[in-house]
Specification:
- This protein is mainly β and about 1500 residues long.
- It is about 5% helix and about 30% strand.
- The strands form 26 sheets. An 11-stranded mixed barrel has the order 21-22-23-33-32-29-30-31-25-26-27. Strands 1, 5, 6, 7, 8, 9, 14, 15 and 16 form a 9-stranded antiparallel beta sheet that branches.
- Strand 82 (about 1440-1445) and strand 83 form a beta hairpin.
- It is elongated.
- The N terminus is likely disordered.
Length: about 1500
């Protein structure tokens, strides 16, 4: 093509094409270059893929590119042209050589290219999908790329004329009517690798609006808008390093070409992608970026230019005429009139002193240079020309210090405390004072001399030919300092920002301190000796690194410690000033002290700055100090001589290779726990916990018995009735409860005698005598017995038949078919049997009954009609009395009766009464005869051993122990039969057990055969019980029996006993497989340890589960079970409310959610039972804990387009016409289990949220302009709940407590609210909104948060959920806040900003703002879960996981179907943050 350019005219808009397009640029010269030029600001060595495959993606691309401005550009409608040519004219080659030699003065000082390939994009626009009424944007861009090469090397030059970049980004594909703009990408990408999204070599110069704005203004060769890169090696893209860089702009933010270049050949995730350039000093780092891709088929060692033998590269471009207007390449035609001088720049853009003299100090003069101007301080003044101070004068600095520090285990926050500095310029002394920092942070900051060291460098005494810091930076700069302490490797970050000179030349400064520092005791002083430090300078940055030792002195003992510091000072300098490459700061004196009286931290330094000789080198850095050691945590690196070091273990650990393993001091007998303590091992140490009944002594080492709290029941300070009428029960808090004794009724304070005789408890042949608190029965003359059973003196037993009993004790029963009717006294025959015909005396109804007196259905006749003819009732098959009583339970008078008081009897398989009957709610048990009548004297109290009921016809006489259990009474304190208010424990034969323990007080003692206490055997609560009788013969209680004796309330959920449940034990004391709760009616199965088997619990009234024999499992006890058993034994089987007992799952695993007694504090644990940091919640909330074993789920087949999720926590994300499901394993993404949850054809889902109470998802649809919902139950159908009054509904938030939802509409600029069914809709805000997008709600506190990405004034606002108290939270340093989430557990509001690339968090009141991650791609939506953030990204078209603490990228999921992802939400197994 020679010197003539080729003009590329854009055809119609590409959009329907499926192939890429480009331009083949091969010339007739001996060394041609085969390249493709694309409309979208990109050059490649091969054909372009489809436009949607790369135009919105970040680097690395999946094909090789040189990208001066990669974006969705448009040349249709005569908007712009694209020119390119190959040129070997001396003028062009000479100009290119000049730029290259300026950028690479050492390596390319003699380089002269033989050819240059030049591509120019002139007045190209951003692609717009225009409607009939819309006008195309008038913002147009012009830029150029040059590839200059000879037979041995190749360079690339990007050129951006002043005003050439009028727009910085374009709308992404498939954005529909969601208002978004993706910034352009500038840089190089190799495009090689099996998976180019994860394994690509690339170099990014700019991909944010901030960096793109600097392309015209800054440079890496000294000419604004010109950027040069060495691309001659396939292994490197090397940015230019000029001796005199370009004029930086003010304010001093970082521009393109930064120090953050990185070499990337990695399969890691976004944390390791190519860094973006943000400064014009690329030489500040030693790592050279990977870069320009070679042509396909070439080895990686080949260069982009042809070999020296003149062989041409193979061209991969197609015939240019084959590209139609439907593609994003360009057709070409020759244009002989094109001006080859493509490097012309307007001189009008040059800045001069005449225009900008006002920026200089009044004590400075201004000088014009070829490409700009600079300010210089006059004689007797020093500074950078913009700010000048008189030489030798005294100066003052004022500032504020804020921060958050972890000191040892304490967290300290401080906000805007005062900093003052006093400078004596004549001799380089700097005094710094910081007041108001709370302890222990103030003492811990003593070693951080670099805080005051900044002022020593700024105002150091200048040796001849040297300049102090202020002479170079002036009063506007930012210092970033990182300090790492050794040996603990605590790390702290310090940022100090100078904001100019105020009145009286006072320098204003802001300081922020964040991180961790070692704890220093009160009596310690810090000494730092003289030191020297090297500083490295460039035109706008100063750097230094050092290793510094300090001495801690406490009396006569000294300890030497050290820290490593890295600092970077950035500023706006004069490009024509030539600061020395290195200078040395010498500090002759340094002091750090804390003034306890004034509460002031003080630093004092005396310093001078001078030249650094050529032989001065940085000292060798020990690997312990720069982190290159090979020690594995928790081993600590101990520095030796030179670069030698050792890996040492702290106390409590043993060496294990290069690491350490924990020593279990408890099992190895190395602990020093005193008597009455329990040793508990913890990593690196152990702790001694006092046993039950003991507390720590004042020395903190030993344990002493707890002083028994005053017992109002013992000392008589209680309101209870006299002890012969009521008992006093101790309760927590010292407020006793009063309870009337059996035989008395009342509230415990007032107790009246109960006339038991009124209930006819005695045998019909006996007389009842009422006594205070009791009664007695005596058989009438001619009978003998105990009054409850009387027999004829001849020995025959007089038994009442059921009919006779019913005659004697008539009672009201519910109307309906029954043996007696309503209030009916049955008629009996001569033998006491029911007459077949029964008639009601008062009503006149008649009916037939069977032999048991049960009414035969259908035989009842009305009053006055002929009575029925009743046949032989023996032949009629009816319900047995027991079965009938179960069907028609009724209240009856207390006392011996077939059913007890409100009792539903238990029947055997043949319908007969079971010999043993127990009352479900009260816990009483008794024996019955064949008619279901209670056998007097067999009733037992709740919690005691049920009676042994044999032949229901026989009579079981009570032993003294059994009688005492039935009728406990208060007795005098001291040695006694039962103790004070004690219910004795009896063995199987009814005899007193040798060991007796008081259920509520915890005292234990021995008794003799008569149950009398043996003096001297009583022990205190919590101590070891006495050994009573023959200890070998003592029958120990099983866990089930112990639980029956000492029932206690426990937290609800799967557990051996349930909530307040008294378990049922079999004959051998084991838990019965089936357990039912007496009062609630719930039933469940338990294993051999009495733990509930998950999934077996049934509702009241439903059929109980079929429980097998919980045979002992063959597996050994798990860690959780062993720990639980150990603590239960330690606590005496009954832990206090303030003692922790771990909860285990049926399989032995730790239950993910653990709670501490009844304190209300809960936390999550991992598989080993260790608490997961950051999950501990306050009373009233529970954290979302990740189940280690998912419960089984059996679901019916769903409809074809819905795939229901499994149990557990998972993410839901919106992707165009579908909602995706991405489960979590812990916090890791289970990518192989991801699937489509819901297909919504014709929709574009943007906002999405989840109602945890109804298990329903809600979403906004910008295509259909609706809000819809769908249950997660299988087969559920989507339901539209709002279908009018919407234009572009985007963000959506669900309040599961108030049953409300909130959404933003960026088309109508509104925020609205409605009930979850769409009713009660109302507008909350419709003013002061421009582009509202994300919205989040805090249901517990009733607050609402939303973002507005108004480009002129972006902000984050808040109000109540009712729209009150609206206010702005954040409106500084934000760009495009797309995503917003409120974490209910950390109480933090966090957002993802596509403009600043930051992920930041703040407290709900706007304080405590911090950056979590500062290198995002293009986030859209974000959600917080556990210790991670998950956000959708429009560059990666995937879900990205970020660690909350470190800010690092930990995982990503890229769906197979590539398209943009919108909203994202997390679905918990339960509702997070709800109040109990």
């Amino acid at each position: 093509m020679g010197p003539r350019g080729l003009r590329a005219r854009g055809g119609g808009r590409r959009g329907g094409g499926t192939d890429g397009g480009g331009i083949s640029a091969a010339s007739e010269h001996p060394a041609p270059l085969s390249l493709q030029v694309g409309t979208n600001g990109v050059i490649s060595t091969q054909d372009f893929p489809r436009e949607t495959q790369y135009v919105d993606d970040d680097f690395p691309t999946d094909f090789p590119v040189v990208a001066p401005f990669l974006a969705d550009l448009d040349t249709s409608g005569d908007r712009g042209n694209i020119y390119y040519r190959q040129d070997d004219s001396p003028a062009v080659l000479g100009q290119a050589a000049g730029y290259i030699q300026a950028g690479f003065p050492r390596t390319a000082g003699a380089f002269m290219p033989t050819n240059a390939f030049i591509a120019t994009w002139e007045d190209v626009g951003a692609y717009q999908e225009l409607s009939q009424d819309a006008e195309p944007s008038k913002k147009l861009n012009t830029f150029q790329a040059v590839i200059a090469y000879d037979d041995e090397d190749t360079y690339a030059i990007f050129l951006y004329p002043d005003g050439g970049l009028q727009f910085l980004g374009t709308r992404p594909k498939e954005s529909y009517n969601v208002q978004l703009e993706l910034p352009a990408r500038v840089g190089f990408s190799w495009g090689d690798g099996d998976d180019p999204k994860r394994d690509g070599l690339f170099h990014s110069l700019a991909s944010s609006e901030q960096a793109l704005r600097q392309l015209e203004r800054e440079s890496n060769v000294g000419v604004p808008g010109v950027w040069v890169f060495h691309v001659g090696s396939a292994e490197h893209v090397e940015p230019g390093v000029p001796p005199v860089p370009s004029v930086p702009q003010s304010p001093p933010h970082r521009g393109p070409g930064t120090a953050d270049y990185t070499h990337h050949v990695s399969t890691q995730l976004p944390a390791h992608r190519g860094s973006e350039a943000t400064s014009s000093r690329p030489h500040q780092r030693g790592i050279v970026p990977q870069g320009l891709p070679p042509s396909p088929g070439q080895e990686r060692s080949r260069r982009l230019y042809p070999d020296g033998d003149g062989g041409a590269w193979q061209s991969y471009s197609a015939n240019p005429s084959s590209y139609s207007s439907g593609h994003h390449g360009v057709g070409v035609e020759e244009d002989v009139h094109f001006n080859p001088d493509v490097f012309t720049y307007s001189a009008a853009s040059k800045e001069t002193c005449a225009q900008h003299h006002g920026t200089c100090s009044p004590h400075a003069f201004c000088t014009d240079y070829a490409t700009g101007f600079c300010c210089h301080c006059r004689a007797t003044y020093y500074g950078n020309g913009r700010q000048c101070l008189p030489e030798g004068a005294v100066h003052r600095l004022n500032g504020k210090v804020s921060g958050s520090l972890t000191v040892g285990r304490a967290s300290v926050r401080f906000q805007e405390v005062d900093l003052h500095a006093y400078i004596v310029g004549s001799d380089g002394r700097a005094y710094t004072a910081i007041s108001g920092v709370p302890q222990p942070a103030t003492r811990a900051l003593l070693p951080l001399l670099p805080i005051g060291g900044l002022f020593a460098w700024l105002f150091a005494l200048e040796e001849p030919g040297s300049e102090n810091g202020f002479s170079i930076t002036g009063a506007e700069f930012t210092q970033s300092l990182e300090v790492t302490f050794y040996p603990g490797e605590e790390k702290v970050h310090i940022t100090q920002t100078a904001e100019g000179l105020g009145p009286d030349n006072y320098l204003s400064l802001k300081t922020h301190i964040q991180g961790e520092v070692p704890f220093l005791p009160e009596n310690v002083t810090v000494h730092i000796g003289p030191y020297k430090e090297l500083y490295h300078y460039s035109s706008s940055a100063v750097m230094s690194s050092a290793h510094r030792e300090y001495v801690l002195a406490a009396g006569t003992a000294n300890q030497t410690l050290s820290y490593r510091l890295h600092q970077n000072i950035s500023f706006t300098g004069c490009p024509h000033a030539r600061p020395p490459a290195r200078q040395q700061l010498s500090v002759a004196r340094a002091f750090a002290l804390y003034d306890g009286q004034e509460h002031v931290l003080r630093y004092a330094l005396a310093a001078r700055v001078g030249s650094a000789s050529d032989d001065v080198q940085n000292p060798l850095v020990n690997p312990c100090h720069d982190g290159t050691h090979a020690c594995e945590a928790p081993a600590r690196c101990q520095p030796g001589v030179g670069t030698e070091y050792t890996c040492e273990c702290a106390a409590g650990y043993r060496p294990d290779g290069r690491g350490c393993r924990d020593v279990d001091e408890c099992t190895e007998g190395l602990s020093r726990c005193s008597p009455f303590t329990l040793c508990l091992n913890v990593p690196g140490s152990y702790r001694c916990e006092c046993r039950s009944g003991y507390r720590p002594a004042q020395d903190g080492q030993a344990c002493v018995p707890l002083a028994p709290p005053p017992d109002p029941c013992e000392d008589g300070r209680n309101p209870c009735a006299p002890r012969d009428r009521a008992r006093c029960l101790p309760r927590a808090g010292g407020h006793p409860a009063c309870q009337c004794l059996p035989g008395y009724s009342g509230d415990g304070i007032h107790c009246a005698d109960v006339d038991e005789c009124a209930e006819n408890p005695c045998h019909p042949a006996a007389t009842c005598y009422n006594t205070p608190g009791s009664f007695s029965c005596r058989c009438q003359p001619g009978y003998e017995g105990d009054g409850f059973q009387c027999t004829h003196a001849e020995g025959g037993t007089q038994r009442l038949t059921p009919c006779q009993h019913q005659q004697l004790y008539p009672r009201e029963v519910p109307p309906g078919p029954s043996p007696v009717g309503d209030g009916h006294v049955p008629q009996c025959d001569e033998e006491g049997q029911y007459r077949p015909l029964q008639c009601h005396g008062s009503s006149g109804h008649c009916w037939c009954v069977d032999a048991a007196g049960q009414e035969i259905a259908g035989t009842r006749t009305a009053p006055g009609s002929t009575p029925p003819r009743c046949g032989n009732p023996e032949a009629i098959q009816q319900l047995t009395p027991c079965e009938h009583e179960r069907l028609y339970p009724r209240a009856v008078p207390p006392g011996p009766s077939p059913v007890g008081d409100g009792h539903v009897p238990q029947c055997d398989e043949e319908g007969r009464y079971r010999p043993l009957q127990c009352h479900g709610s009260s816990g009483h048990c008794w024996c019955v005869d064949a008619a279901g009548q209670e056998i007097a004297g067999t009733r037992t109290a709740p919690g005691s051993t049920p009676p042994r009921c044999g032949n229901p016809g026989g009579t079981q006489r009570l032993t003294p122990c059994q009688h005492q259990q039935l009728y406990p009474r208060a007795v005098p304190p001291g040695p006694s039969l039962v103790g004070d208010g004690h219910v004795p424990q009896c063995d199987e034969e009814g005899q007193y057990r040798p060991l007796q323990c008081h259920g509520s007080s915890g005292h234990c003692w021995c008794v003799d055969a008569a149950g009398q206490e043996i003096a001297g055997t009583r022990t205190a609560p919590g101590s070891t019980p006495p050994r009573c009788g023959n200890p070998e013969a003592i029958q120990q209680l099983t866990p089930c029996e112990h639980e029956r004796l000492y029932p206690r309330a426990v937290p609800p959920g799967p557990s051996p006993v349930g909530d307040g449940h008294v378990p049922q034990c079999d004959e051998e004391g084991r838990y019965r497989p089936l357990q039912c709760h007496g009062s609630s009616g719930h039933c469940w199965c338990v294993d051999a340890a009495g733990q509930e088997i998950a999934g077996t619990r049934t509702a009241p009234g439903s059929t109980p589960p079929r429980c097998g024999n919980p045979a002992p499992t063959e597996r050994p006890q798990s860690m959780c079970e062993r720990w639980r058993q150990s603590l239960l034994e330690h606590y005496g089987g009954s832990p206090r409310h303030d003692q922790y007992v771990p909860q285990c799952q049926p399989g032995g695993e730790f239950t993910p959610l653990q709670c501490h007694g009844d304190s209300g504090y809960c936390w999550c644990v991992d598989e080993s039972g260790r608490e997961i940091q950051g999950t501990r919640s306050e009373p009233g909330t529970t954290p979302p804990c990740l189940p280690s074993v998912a419960p089984p789920s059996v679901r019916p087949s769903p409809r074809p387009d819905v795939s229901p999720p499994t149990a557990g926590t998972f993410l839901l994300y919106a992707q165009g016409q579908q909602i995706g499901y991405l489960p979590l394993n812990g916090t890791r993404l289970q990518k192989e289990e991801a699937k489509t949850l819901l297909s919504l054809h014709g929709s574009i889902v943007v906002g999405i949220d989840y109602d945890c109470r109804e298990k329903t998802i809600y979403w906004t649809d910008v295509a259909g302009r609706t809000i819809s919902r769908a249950s997660l139950e299988p087969g559920a159908e989507p339901e539209t709940i709002i279908n009018s009054g919407l234009m572009s509904p985007e963000g959506l938030a669900v309040d599961h407590l108030r049953r409300a939802m909130f959404w933003t509409d960026s088309g109508l600029d509104k925020i609205e609210r409605a009930r979850l069914d769409g009713s009660e809709r109302r507008v909350l805000f419709d003013t002061e909104l421009v582009n509202p997008r994300a919205i989040a709600v805090d249901p517990v506190r009733g607050n609402l948060y939303w973002t507005d990405w108004n480009r002129e004034a972006p902000k984050i606002e808040t109000s109540t959920v009712n729209g009150a108290n609206r206010r702005v939270l954040v409106n500084k340093d934000i760009g495009l806040p797309n995503g917003l989430t409120f974490d209910p557990f950390s109480k933090l509001l966090c957002w993802a900003d596509a403009g600043t690339k930051h992920l930041e968090c703040t407290f709900p009141d706007g304080t405590g703002r911090r950056v979590v991650q500062n290198n995002l791609n293009y986030p859209f939506s974000i959600i917080s879960y556990a210790n991670h953030f998950y956000h959708t990204d429009w560059r990666r078209d995937g879900v990205i996981a970020i660690d909350k603490e470190t800010g690092s990228f930990t995982d990503e999921y890229l769906p197979e179907q590539r398209s943009h992802l919108y909203g994202i939400t997390a679905v918990y197994p339960y509702c997070p943050g709800a109040r109990k």
